[in-house]
Each structure stands twice: as structure tokens, then as C-alpha cells.
Specification:
- The protein has 92 residues and is mainly α.
- It has 4 helices and no strands.
- Helix 1 (2-30) crosses helix 2.
- The two termini are 19 Å apart.
């Protein structure tokens, strides 16, 4: 049951990451109020990092920003390590 909840949460945050990233890219092209970089990084921290990184690569958005191209992979690595540790402690 817990795994289904976690999967649902990660799916929702990943979808949000894709939507917000595409929205920001469109605003970068057409003008208008942009999404703050801190907001994008916060969505990554909350679990949308993989989806955001993939989306940024596909739409070529913020790919020259070190904060994103280095920061998001580091967030992914930390999240994978955390999941590994949680899984390991749950199994005894």
C-alpha cells in the first residue's frame, strides 16, 4: 500500500514538473511572468527531478544553467540514495 501511495505521489509531482517546465519555456519564448528558479528546484527536490531533467533536455530549456544541469542530477543521486537507505532499513 505504501509503495502505491509513493508511486502516485511521484507520478503527480513528475507531471507537475513537466507542466511547469514547459510553461516556463513558453514564457521564455513569448514573454510574460517566468517561473522562479527556486520554484523549479523545489519541485525537483519534492520528487520531480527526473521528469524535470528529461523535460529540460527534450525542450532545451535551462540546459546552460549550472544550477540545473549539475544541481538536478545531484538531487536525483541524493533521492536514489535516500530510497536505497529507506528500503534497506525497512528490510532489516
Amino acid at each position: 500500500m505504501t509503495e502505491k501511495i509513493l508511486f502516485g505521489y511521484l507520478a503527480a509531482v513528475s507531471l507537475l514538473a513537466v507542466i511547469v517546465t514547459v510553461f516556463d519555456k513558453r514564457r521564455a519564448i513569448c514573454g510574460g511572468r517566468r517561473v522562479q528558479e527556486a520554484t523549479l528546484l523545489l519541485i525537483s527536490l519534492c520528487g520531480g527531478s527526473a521528469a524535470m531533467l528529461i523535460t529540460m533536455q527534450i525542450i532545451r530549456h535551462k540546459t546552460r544553467h549550472v544550477n540545473f544541469m549539475l544541481g538536478i542530477p545531484l538531487i536525483i543521486a541524493a533521492q536514489v540514495a535516500l530510497l536505497f537507505l529507506l528500503r534497506r532499513s525497512a528490510n532489516g
